[in-house]
Amino acid sequence: MVRRENPHVVLMDIVMPRMSGIEAAIIISKEKPEIKIIACSTVDQNNMVMRALEAGCCNYIVKPFKSEDVLKAVRSAVKQNSKEAGV
Predict the structure, then answer these.
(1) Relative orientation angle of helices 46-54 and 21-31, to the nearest 10 degrees
(2) What is the model's pTM?
(3) For the CA atoms of 14, 70, 29, 7, what is the dihedral angle to 10 degrees?
């Protein structure tokens, strides 16, 4: 889907049916490093957060989350994109 849509930001669950969010983040980060990935999960463990960040995620939010949490994470990702683009 990322290849087809070419988004600026991806909000992705860590637990997915065919491929983990960690695996997907690694692929996305290699193929399209300009895309910011926000991981989300019910797992709030330091090792899972670190794995997500090492895989290329720019943020990690824990379920259940409020809409404000998602907006804050997306705004932060967009801000990172703007800084990297020199805007």
Answers:
(1) 20
(2) 0.88
(3) 120
What letter would DSSP give residue 36? E
**Domain definitions of the chain by residue range:** 2-79
- Contacts (Cβ under 8 Å, ≥6 apart) of 77: 8, 9, 36, 38, 58, 59
57 is written with which tokens?
Answer: 């995620």
Provide the token pair at 55.
């895989």
CA 5 to mean position of chain CA atoms: 16
Question: What dotted CATH number matches 2-79?
Answer: 3.40.50.2300
Q: What residues pair up with 39 in beta bridges, in sequence order?
A: 12, 60
The band of 5, judged by pLDDT with boundaries at 50, 70 and 90, is: confident
